[in-house]
Design a protein that fits this description.
GO terms for molecular function: catalytic activity; magnesium ion binding. The chain has a domain of 273 residues: TIM Barrel (Alpha-Beta Barrel), CATH 3.20.20.60. Helices cover 54% and strands 9% of the residues. It has 17 helices and eight strands. Helix 8 links the parallel strand 4 and strand 5. The protein starts with a helix and ends in an 8-residue tail after the last helix. The mean pLDDT is 94.
């Protein structure tokens, strides 16, 4: 053979750096559930039952103007079957009664403002106690944590004090760091701030006697310097890898970013061309890194007279559908009345292609073809789509497992590798 063991050993040496880069920097999706939204609540307004109250307020907002089915008629594609809209309306009502909030952030930053040190200390401790109570009573969302102040010079000491107080109280109340804990670092501008945050996390882990790497955090992309640095490169990609595995997600900040570009307030929105430019770069940067990506929020809330509410609902549903179609599976909600349109638009997005996705996966699992020959990369994408559908409640997991002949672990394996487990073949 011309290509022999010596050839391959040399090839392994030449490509050792590439192999290490791909394994370390681009490990692929790690199978973590990604919430469909993050709800922000000012720290002084949070309590253990906030998620349930938001769900009830969301239902009441719809009931004041009719029924969920009428809202579905208002915000969904009118070409869809009426029975389909009935089904979606029922699914959303059930969601709002059982898991109205998937991810909740107790806000000590923009939504909270500047308070005295004593007041913020009290709220940091109280927030942790209320989270512990919610966890004990089973009323906590799947993901919950705080957004503390940024690492800019005039705010970093206050923000990190809040973080330490919150964590110390939470650990005292629960005994260990809850798996649902999610921390958000806002207004990141440079890679050095991420490196500094890593050092802080490591110091807190040592002080709290936690395993190294236990404290992970999200980064908010709110400044143009992260999209294009002074050197003319994409700094956001460097931020991900500087996180050394601690960064769980990047969140786009609609209004801070738009304002930094000088966009007039009336035109600052999630669908502005400047926003799309930034988000396309972020989406590319997070690809295959295992880091999630979330869109931002709209500040047009469904409040006021009937016309204002209806227009806000239509806008919100359209923006949610828009970022889902662009491969961004999470966004922010700032008001309880945004929850119905969040879930209507999200459930509609998943259900419109769910039948086709499951059929294609059935053929892939059985190594059959009906006009479409999918490759492993496509099978991975289809499986992830199905997993997202079942995680948020848009589809019934047991029914899909039965159709595919795959349990949850096997479906997750398919989503991770594109390969059907041997036990299912």
């Amino acid at each position: 053979m011309i290509l022999n063991d010596t050839t391959f050993r040399k090839l392994d040496q030449v490509l050792a750096g590439t192999d290490a880069l791909l394994a370390d920097a681009y490990p692929g999706d790690d199978g973590r559930r990604q919430p469909v939204h993050t709800v922000y609540v000012p720290a002084d307004q949070f309590s253990f039952d906030t998620a349930q109250r938001w769900g009830q307020q969301a239902l009441e907002a719809v009931q004041q103007r009719g029924r969920m089915r009428q809202l579905a008629d208002l915000v969904l594609d009118h070409t869809s079957d009426p029975a389909y809209r009935d089904e979606l309306a029922q699914l959303v009502e059930r969601k709002l009664g059982t898991e109205p909030v998937e991810d909740l952030r107790i806000d000590f930053e923009d939504g909270y403002g500047q308070r005295s040190d004593a007041e913020e200390d009290r709220h940091a401790i109280a927030a942790a106690k209320q989270v512990a109570k919610a966890l004990a009573e089973g009323s906590a969302p799947p993901f919950i944590g705080i957004r503390f102040k940024c690492l800019e010079a005039n705010l970093r000491a206050r923000g990190l004090r809040t973080l330490e107080l919150y964590l110390s109280t939470l650990l005292e109340q629960t005994g260990q760091l809850p798996e649902s804990t999610t921390l958000t670092l806002p207004k990141v501008t440079t890679v050095d701030q991420v490196k500094a945050m890593n050092d802080i996390a490591a110091t807190l882990e040592t002080g709290f006697k936690m395993p190294q790497g236990a404290l992970r955090y999200e980064v908010q992309v709110e400044t143009p310097q992260l999209i294009i640095s002074a050197e003319g490169r994409s700094e956001v990609a460097r931020v991900i890898h500087a996180g050394k595995g601690r960064i769980t997600s990047l969140h786009y900040g609609t209004y801070d970013y738009s304002a930094s570009l000088g966009i007039a307030a009336a035109y600052q929105s999630m669908d502005h061309p400047a926003a799309d430019f930034a988000k396309n770069i972020i989406l590319t940067a997070v690809a295959e890194t295992g880091v999630h990506f979330s869109d931002g929020s709209t500040n047009i809330l469904p409040v006021g007279d009937e016309n204002q509410v209806n227009q806000a609902w239509q806008l919100h549903a359209r923006l949610v559908s828009r970022h889902l179609r662009r491969g961004i599976y999470q966004g922010w909600d700032m008001h309880p009345a945004q929850l119905p349109t969040r879930f209507l638009a999200t459930f509609d997005f998943f259900n419109r292609s769910l039948t086709s996705a499951v059929q294609r996966l059935e053929q892939y699992v059985r190594a059959e073809s009906d006009g479409i020959m999918d490759e492993p990369a496509t099978a991975k994408a289809l499986a992830r789509y199905v997993l997202r559908s079942t995680a948020c409640g848009a589809a019934d997991a047991a029914e899909i497992h039965q159709r595919l002949g795959l349990d949850q672990l096997a479906l997750e394996h398919l989503a991770s590798t594109g390969l059907v487990p041997q036990s299912a073949t």
